[in-house]
Structure prediction request, 252 residues.
Amino acid sequence: MGKVYFIGAGPGDPELITVKGQRIIREAGLVLYAGSLVPEAVIAEASPEAHIENSASMSLEETNAIMVEYASKGELVARVHTGDPSLYGAVQEQARLLKESSIEYEVIPGVTSACAAAAASSASFTVPNGTQTLIITRMEGRTPVPQSESLEKLAAHGSAMAIYLSAGNPSRIQKELMKGGMGPETPVIIGYRIGWPEEKSVETTLTKLAATAEENGFKRQTIFLILPGKNVETESLLYDSGFTHMFRKGED
Prediction:
């Protein structure tokens, strides 16, 4: 029997895939990739003998059938997802069906768009003497979100947030975060198609979040980074000459 690898392809930049993920793509007999979000450049190094299939129009049953077909022939299967498979990656149901067919599988992590968007703007989610928590979430849309995880309730923590899959209603994002107690001047970074040639990052504030998204036409493939610690200018103790840790004795 072969093996299926769920590979996190990163946000779009073909260089933001792990070395392991790229190696599996080169070795795979089947490369099944989410073509609606994964650019072809990410799978460009697939073997000329490999069968390459775009899963954008396929159902769960169809993707499972082709993965089982190739793995049963002893082939490696590269199932290539955008970002990181553990975040909104729909991997659980695919893995369940593979288990039912006794097909071995492995997950290879990838760079998620929240980290890529923060890097693109040289931003940090956590800051010394400021927020130490990052909440990754999305707003309710065509699929529900637990009531306890509404943006309004999560905003009450005052921590950094990365809001996925919510570009269709930026005014509601703004309204719910402010109702939850976040200040109107809270720094926000809006990242559009991060990792793609046309990527764009715009810095704004919470009170201007909706207007900024609408002015720039950010309707999809957009992530909202809410960064309450962005303008906090404090220094970490890690490199403070007076701070002692296991690798250095602090100066008296």
Q: What stands out?
A: The two ends are 63 Å apart (CA to CA).
